[in-house]
């Protein structure tokens, strides 16, 4: 990385965690195509399935990412075909309807039984007038992990889209990587808590980001060489409380926190956007995906959510990716990378007057980003503790047990008590998460 002034790598002992070992601010080694394929350095290069359908496995299929992914597949049936689905199972009817619609060859749910799932699919098939549809079924805690690696006897899927929310997505992420499929990653938590476990399991280019910010960065990085990249700039909408002081945040309610001005997301992600914990997680994700030193990752508030992120190059140029907020665009890129999917989303309309504004992040009111950077610098199991403590605090907030400011305060307090782990393994990550959840609950109980 070439820049004037101090080397931003000097405070960052983990700059080599990306597959391929690049420590430049603009490493693209984590973004590209499935294991064994050629590089993905430029637009238009051929990827797996470029000349035919790509087979797709959807994890978290009934959630926001999963349902929009099915929209993308439906819009480009010549490009994609869903071969397997997995969801939590809270609504068997929902995943059963998806299964009948897509004719998925395998379906899994974490909750419920195979018999109940079979009955739900049969009922949906009758309603749709579909006969003879009988997919392979899985149920139980390991169902999603089994679906992630499912090959149907003909090899792994071309792409596994992990749209699960939370660190429970770690095992499916690792299973998808081991299968050799491209991992279209919307489940940022699995990368964040898994860290080197995930990046070490990924071949160069095997992980393609689906978060809108990281998809934007991947697109912008095509504009220059890795050694020409000076800085990554993540944009944040600022959430529903942009402009408020810390004192003004003390009395906000769960309903207010869920009133996001731009995006329609689940409860945890929407709350994380209000606290800016989500942006802190995205900083860690960018650090791991692109091998970028934490000191070379900035956050800027952009209320319109049109510019999804930017890359600053050494000559002073800043390349931005802009589009109206629509997750179908990064989902389509995740499924089709490095090729684009025509018509995936509507472009910006420049026939009407519009203003795009940018402002600095108020870290006094919203300290989550700086706390996340601290966790990332510590490495080891610290990011897992950051995420787990936050998940417990968010639940307590929505249960009415704590105030809004208590969420991030609890995360910081639990993180300060953590000693890390000598070795990063799946077991040590799970142990650290369990400790963080228990410690967070203990602290939260004293606030009631």
Automatic annotation (TrEMBL):
Residues 20-29 have a biased composition (Low complexity). Its EC number is 1.1.1.267. Residues 56-195 form the 1-deoxy-D-xylulose 5-phosphate reductoisomerase N-terminal domain. It is an enzyme of class 1 (oxidoreductase). It comes from the Bacteria. Keywords: Isoprene biosynthesis, Magnesium, Manganese, Metal-binding, NADP, Oxidoreductase. 1-deoxy-D-xylulose 5-phosphate binds at residues 188, 212-213, 237, 260, 273, 278-279, 282. Pathway: Isoprenoid biosynthesis; isopentenyl diphosphate biosynthesis via DXP pathway; isopentenyl diphosphate from 1-deoxy-D-xylulose 5-phosphate: step 1/6. NADPH binds at residues 62-65, 88, 187, 189, 266. Residues 1-54 are annotated as: Disordered. Mn(2+) binds at residues 211, 213, 282. The keyword Manganese applies. Residues 34-50 have a biased composition (Gly residues). Residues 207-290 form the 1-deoxy-D-xylulose 5-phosphate reductoisomerase C-terminal domain. Residues 323-438 form the DXP reductoisomerase C-terminal domain. GO terms for molecular function: 1-deoxy-D-xylulose-5-phosphate reductoisomerase activity. Its cofactor is Mg(2+); Mn(2+). It catalyses: 2-C-methyl-D-erythritol 4-phosphate + NADP(+) = 1-deoxy-D-xylulose 5-phosphate + NADPH + H(+). Coiled coil: none annotated. Pfam families: DXP_redisom_C, DXP_reductoisom, DXPR_C. Belongs to the DXR family. Catalyzes the NADPH-dependent rearrangement and reduction of 1-deoxy-D-xylulose-5-phosphate (DXP) to 2-C-methyl-D-erythritol 4-phosphate (MEP). PANTHER family: 1-DEOXY-D-XYLULOSE 5-PHOSPHATE REDUCTOISOMERASE, 1-DEOXY-D-XYLULOSE 5-PHOSPHATE REDUCTOISOMERASE, CHLOROPLASTIC. This is 1-deoxy-D-xylulose 5-phosphate reductoisomerase. It comes from Sinomonas halotolerans.
């Amino acid at each position: 990385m070439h820049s004037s002034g101090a080397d931003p790598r000097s405070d960052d002992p983990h700059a080599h965690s990306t597959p391929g070992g690049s420590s430049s601010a603009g490493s693209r080694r984590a973004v590209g195509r499935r294991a064994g394929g050629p590089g993905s350095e430029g637009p238009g290069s051929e990827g797996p399935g470029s000349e035919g359908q790509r087979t797709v496995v959807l994890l978290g299929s009934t959630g926001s990412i999963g349902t929009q992914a099915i929209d993308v597949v439906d819009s480009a049936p010549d490009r994609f075909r869903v071969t397997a689905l997995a969801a939590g199972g809270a609504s068997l009817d929902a995943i059963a309807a998806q299964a009948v619609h897509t004719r998925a060859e395998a379906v899994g749910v974490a909750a419920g039984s195979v018999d109940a799932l079979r009955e739900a699919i049969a009922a949906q098939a009758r309603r749709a007038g579909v006969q003879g549809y009988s997919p392979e079924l899985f149920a139980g805690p390991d169902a999603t992990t089994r679906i992630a690696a499912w090959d149907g006897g003909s090899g792994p899927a071309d792409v596994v889209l992990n749209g699960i929310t939370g660190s429970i997505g770690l095992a499916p992420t690792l299973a998808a990587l081991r299968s050799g499929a491209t991992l279209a990653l919307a489940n940022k938590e699995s990368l964040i808590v898994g860290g080197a476990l995930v990046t070490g399991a990924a071949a160069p280019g095997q992980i393609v980001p689906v978060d809108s910010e990281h998809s934007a960065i991947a697109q912008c990085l095509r504009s220059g060489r890795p050694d020409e990249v000076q800085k990554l700039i993540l944009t944040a909408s600022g959430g529903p409380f942009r402009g408020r002081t810390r004192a003004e945040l003390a009395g906000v309610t769960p309903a207010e926190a869920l009133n996001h001005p731009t995006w329609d997301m689940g409860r945890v992600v929407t709350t994380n956007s209000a606290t800016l914990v989500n942006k802190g997680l995205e900083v860690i994700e960018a650090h791991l995906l692109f091998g970028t030193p934490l000191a070379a990752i900035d956050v800027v508030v952009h209320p319109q959510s049109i510019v999804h992120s930017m890359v600053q190059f050494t000559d002073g140029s800043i390349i931005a990716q802009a589009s109206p907020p629509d997750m179908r665009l990064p989902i389509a890129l995740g499924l089709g990378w490095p090729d684009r999917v025509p018509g995936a989303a509507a472009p910006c309309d420049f026939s009407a007057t519009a203003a795009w504004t940018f402002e600095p992040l108020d870290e006094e009111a919203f300290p989550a980003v700086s706390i996340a950077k601290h966790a990332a610098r510590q490495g080891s199991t610290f990011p897992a503790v950051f995420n787990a403590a936050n998940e417990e605090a968010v639940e307590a907030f929505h249960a009415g047990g704590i105030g809004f400011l208590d969420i991030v305060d609890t995360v910081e307090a639990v993180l300060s008590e953590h000693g890390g782990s000598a070795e990063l393994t799946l077991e040590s990550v799970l142990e650290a998460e369990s400790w963080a959840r228990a410690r967070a609950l203990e602290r939260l109980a004293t606030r009631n």
